[in-house]
Structures are given as structure tokens and as C-alpha cells.
Queue: 3 jobs
Job 1
Amino acid sequence: MTPFERIVKKNQIKRVSREALEEAREYIEETALEISEQSVRLANHAGRKTVRKEDIDFVTGHR
């Protein structure tokens, strides 16, 4: 069972097509990649090599 399938099962969704699972997985992967790229740029701009929680919070709008 994939991590996303576990999330679906945990939320008591009974049936989901393979296509829907794949589409959701691709979206989550793309979003995570964008967040990580922006967080790295932010850390670099601040003169750091380490991405901090605050960088991810800033990029995602969580404060």
C-alpha cells in the first residue's frame, strides 16, 4: 500500500480509482518540489545552507 493509499484509507474513503490516486500523488509531489525549491532559495538568500522550519512556514504561508 502506498503512503497516499494509507491516507485515503485513514480518511475512510472506501473506493478510489488508480487514476485518481496517481493524479493526487503527482500533485502532492509537484507541490512538495515547489515548496522545497522556494525554501532553498530563501535560505540561500539569507546566507544559509540549511533550510529551516521558518523557511517552509514562510513559503507555505504558515506563520
Job 2
Amino acid sequence: MSGRSLFVWGHTARILFPLAFLPLILAGCRFYNHSQAPIPPTDLASVDSPCDSLSPLTADELNLVADQIRESRRPPATPARKYNILALSGGGAYGAYTAGVLCGWTETGTRPEFDVITGISTGSLIACLAFLGPCTDEEIHRFYTQTKSRDLYRIHKPIRSLFSAYLADNTPLADRISATITPQFLAAVAGEHAKGRRLYVGTTNLNTRRLVVWDMGAIAARGTPESRELFINVLLASTAIPGFFPPVRFSVDVDGKPCEEIHVDGGVSRAVFFRAPFAPPESRAAFGATSLHDSNLYLIVAGKLYPDPAPVRMKALNIAGNSISSLIHSSARAEVYRLFTYSILTGMNYHLAAVPQEFATITSSVKFDPIEMTKLFEEGRRQIHNGTAWRKHPQGLEKSEDIRARTGLHLTVPPPDGCKPGTVPVVPLEMPREMPRELPAVEPTFPGLNLMPPLFPSLWYIPDQFGMPLPLSPSYPLRGNSPIPPGRAPIAK
């Protein structure tokens, strides 16, 4: 090879090789280069105004207002039943925290039977096992405390990665999923589905760039080899970190026309999602926004609500990686806040669990280290046993989460007890006690599908903590099979 050829190849490799690892950064797999300068504390304020905070409410005041709104929307008649809904986020190895919360919950004797479980990415794997109840706790515990990275994937050689659609071979993970999803396992899922309980898994359709929700119980209920293959492929798609694991192709039939879709990790489009309980066809007319009053919505975030501080190397990929990591965390917090708003308007009790900010843990979601994952598992288990796992409100209102305005470069760490932010008077809200007789039109239903509770059209968009409109109930396609029948899951318009 000539000297010129070596120069051209070397120059090309220097450009392409870092780009090949960009998906790792996007997926939260971070590479840090520690700089000389120390990392300042997260909670800082200007010396001349240490108590300037942008939070107009304290957590207690927000909880009080939320309770008042729930009470004002209490239906005249008590709902026929009280539901328990569990929503699990993605997070890779951080799923060990979710596993610890669930297993510890069982040990306390207070874990309910969930009417609905939804899962994204690693949360989809846990959701399928948790759907069958505490009998699968040992398997969940074993997977999230004993699994190593090599048990799930193998990184391609660097040169191969340059010309591949993904960086790692997830065949070991596929083999594990296949060994778990046996015909007997599917029969058990189908049995719970027949009782009216629901299991949903989210994937991202790269073609439409939207979340797709799969009704896993309906798929399992078919009891065919094809349905088992689809069940497994949906789980592989939900855990397919873009660019890191291979995407999953689905051959679908749309009104008699064959199409192909490419699906990846559900966390690309949603950090966590909510789905209403199943309502039999004969009772759907009476199923409205107040039907969930006093039901419980449990959200478990496999990770922290805010990223940990870390040194940043002044290189394009490092800057982009840290920025996108911040964006991913911000998106997850927005989703958590949206579900908090939804719980208020429907009267559901809101319960949020996440890894504490002060907890020292791994910095990569794809690094499966049994020692560190066991620590995460035990932290979730400890919180449940100590009664500190659940918070009634979303992030942004704790002392360490305040956003303080700066007046210059002379900073200080605020006092440990913090400064009480300005408060607003809490006044009882006058809300209509009955729903209007004319409700938004609903698309045609299919037997076995569920309804999202309709809300006032004027309440479809509620400002979040930054004043940005957030849709309360976006239209997610619900699937129970690969071919798509005419129409979609019924949703409130």
C-alpha cells in the first residue's frame, strides 16, 4: 500500500471511527476523560442572592393543590373498583433498581396484583415476568444481580463496526429471552389476560418515528408458534438500543397491502407510558375520566431523574454525548410530569420511585456488572422496606432540585436547610363534579381492546412546570398481532 493510500485511509478512519461509536453515546454509554479542573457541586447559587429560586411552590403545597383537584373531581358514586397500574421505564442495567423495588415490595407483603403493567426496554423484560406475580421474583433477582455484559451481547470488531448497522451482536440476549418465553410461559400470560389484566410493551417504529404499543396478552392468547415468535421479537425490538443492537423488522399487512416496519428501543419515543385498564364492551359507555378515581398509578424509573455531574472533554463527540444525555433525562422528566398531571385529572393516586441522586452507581446503562447491579437492587429493596421509595409528586420541588438564577461568577453552596421559596395562597378550586353529557367521539372499538378515559377537550393540553403544553393522552397504535386490522385502538379525540 502506497504512502498516499495509507494517508487517505488513515484520514478516513479518523473521521468514520468516532462516528461509528456515536450511537453508544446516544444510548447513554458514556466515555469520560477526566479533566484537571474540579467538577463544581450541582446545587449552586450566587453569593449575593443564595436564596433566589424559580420554584413558586413547595412539594407540600403542590401535593395539597393536587389533592384538592382530585377531591373536586370525585364522582358522586364511588367507582366500581380500584385499579393498580404499574409503568416501568427503560434503563438497561439500571433495571436492577426496578427489580429490587418489586422484590422488596413482595417481601413487605403489600405488593398488589396489577391490573395493567406497561414496560419500555429493560422495563419490558421485567414487566413480562412481574405480570405473572411474585412467583417470578427469583428469576428477576437472578437476572439483575448475576448477569454480565458478555451474557447479553458481544461487541463487533472496530473495523466491522464501520460498515455495520449496529455495534453489538445481541444473540445471547435473544437466546435468554427465547429460553424464558416458553409455551408454558405464554399460556400463563394468556390466562391472566383472560381475567381482564393487561400487559403492554412499547417499541419505536423508526419509519413513523412514533411509539407502538403491543398487547402482549392478546398475542400470547393465540397460542401458536407464530405468536411466540412475535412475542419474542417485540421484546427484542423494545430492548434494541439504536445503533448498538440490531433493529427488528416486522412484515405487516395494512388493509391487504404488505409493508415492512423497522422497530427499535421503545425508550427512543417514550421513557415510560400509561395505558388504562381493560373495560368490557358492555361497560365501556360508562367508563369515563372519573372511573379511575382513587386508583393507583405506580411509576418506577430505572435510573436517576437527573444525570450525574461528570467532566467533559472539549471534543465534539464528548460535548454531543453529554448534551444528548441531558436531553434524554429532560425528556424522561417531562413524561413523568405529564403522567402526574394525568393522575390529578383522573383522580388517581400518584407514586413515583427513582434511584436517589446521591446514590453512587454505574455511569453506563449497557455495562452489566453484577457487583454494581446488586448494589442497585439492594437500594431499591432498602427503600421499599424503609418506606422511602415513593414520592407523591414529580421532580423539581425538592431543595436539591431548585433552579437558581445567577447574577455572576461568584458562587456558593446554599445552606443545608435551604431557603423556603415564595409561596402562593392555596385556595379550594371550583371544578365541575359531573362530566358533560357530550363526550368526544371515539373510534370504532374491537373486542378485547381498552379505552383511554375521555377528558374535557379544554384539558387535553396542560402546561408543565416550564409553561410548555404537554398532550395528556397521545394516540398510540395498539397491536395484538403483526398484521394491522382496519382502524386503531380507540382513543379520545
Job 3
Amino acid sequence: MQYDKSDALCHSARTPQHPADPPPAGPDESPGAVGSQAPTPDGRAAPRATRRMLLRGAACLGLVGVHRLLAAAPAHTPGFGGVAAVADDARPAAESYRLRPLAGTERLPSGAPPHGPRTVRTEAHLTLSEPGSKIALTFDDGPHPRQTPAVLRILRRHGARATFFVIGENAGWNPDLVKAIADDGHLIANHSWSHPQLNRVPEARVRRELGRTCDLIERALGAPPRFARAPYGAWHAPSLRICAELGMEPMGWSIDTLDWREPGSRTIRSRVLTGAHPGAIVLAHDGGGDRSQTVDALAHYLPRLIDQGYTMVPLSEPT
């Protein structure tokens, strides 16, 4: 039986004193005093302890109840729509099923990935593994309240599907956009919580960055992400291992638009159309700065890729 500290608080109140050591009689506890009890058969005066014992017992039960209520209180209350916004310097999400070992017969939450931890990769995947004239358009650093809807409109216009690597902080501030991306049939993946360079921070920070974003995506969509991309593509051995432990595949890219440098929409679209090849993974951004050039370029190169016979697909499981 589990030991409850609240039981110890009232141990003396519940345990009678030894028969050989009766409590000393007070001034009003002598035989014949008002309110005193009758003598016992052996001739000793019984102390007036019954009422005190009842009062002590009631107080004990009150302490036990308060202790157990406090122990059962939740540690925190989720924020907007079940997507909790947690301070960046908070402890890692130790309660996440991905960050704690299973104990006994404890069951996984309903959203637990069926595959569990993945094989630890030595490097990120740079291209699609499935055959055919397929290209994966990917967008990092969102969601952004203006630029992400603009990208979604263009994709919807051409019936194209893509993958969005979201920043946890941005997803927390824009939960409706997270749902809108998924509702349009696009894939949502993990791009860390606050965009640090993973190979320059401690392992605990890497786990927190990826783990918190996993948890947020699962709370928002009901399933954890299956893919992750390190900010700046800076994977290293510890981050690759943690990525696998969290049930995700590490991703890179084969066509870099370098749109974050704002080189002009003409340059961006040229890089995509010139570099296009079967199985290409295109890196672009819908957040992290002014991405109007990215949006303009997408409107130009997407229909041309389709005319060339390419199909735009979200990321798929590597073979």
C-alpha cells in the first residue's frame, strides 16, 4: 500500500496511548468533577478524552482531505484551444509520452504513434524515395497570418499539396492556420520551437525544442508529426538521435530557393524551374520575414512544373 504523508500527520491522534500510561488527570478530570466520566471497574478514574479524541479525528480527516486535493491538482492549464503556450525557458515536457519511459501497464495516449522510435539516421533525407515525376514543395518558419494564407490559396488553385515545417511558437500564436493547413490536405511537420541552431545548443534544449513542437502539433491535430527539419539544416548526431526517439524522420532538401535573402521573385522561380528533377524537395519559406517574393515566385513556377508533368506531393515515408 502506498504511504501517504497525510496519514502521518494524525498518527498520534488515531493511536490510543498505552494502557499502562493513562493521561494525567487535569483539574476538571478528577472523579466526581462536572463532566468527568465514571470510574472504571479497576478503580482508576477514566480521563475525559472521548470528546478530545473525536475533535482530533475530525481535524485529521480535514488535513487528509486538503492534502489529497492538493496532490491531485493539475500542474498547469492549457492555453488557447488546447494548444498550450509555454515559456521558452520552461522545463522539457517531461509528461510527454515521447519523453518518458513506459512503466508497468501504463497505456499510451490515443494519439501515440504506432511506429514508436525510428531508426537513427546518420544524415537527413534530401530527396523523395518514391518513384515517378514527383516534387515536394516545403515551406519553413510559418505559419504567418498573411503569407501562409497566400501560399495556401495558390496551392489550392492548382490542386497541389505541400509540407509545412512549422515553428512551435508561430503555430501556438496561429492555431487556426495550423488547422487550415491540415484541412487543405497538406502535411504539417516539425521545425523546432524557436528556431535555434540545434548543433550549437545542449541536448536538453534540442529535446525541448523538438518535443514541445511535437506535443503542440499533436494537441492541435490529434496526431504527432512524422518529419522534422533542423533550422538551417544543421543536424548533428545528438539531434538525429533525438529526432528518431521522438518518432520523426530528419529531412533536408535538394533545391534551395534561398528566398530568405530576398533575391527577387524572378531569381527564386528560376532556381526552382532550373533545378527541378524527379524526387526533388524544394525549400522555401512562408514565415521568418517578408516572403512576398516567395509568394509571387510560387504563383509563377507551380503551374509550369505541372505543365512539365510533375505532381506536387507532401513528404512520404522513406523506403
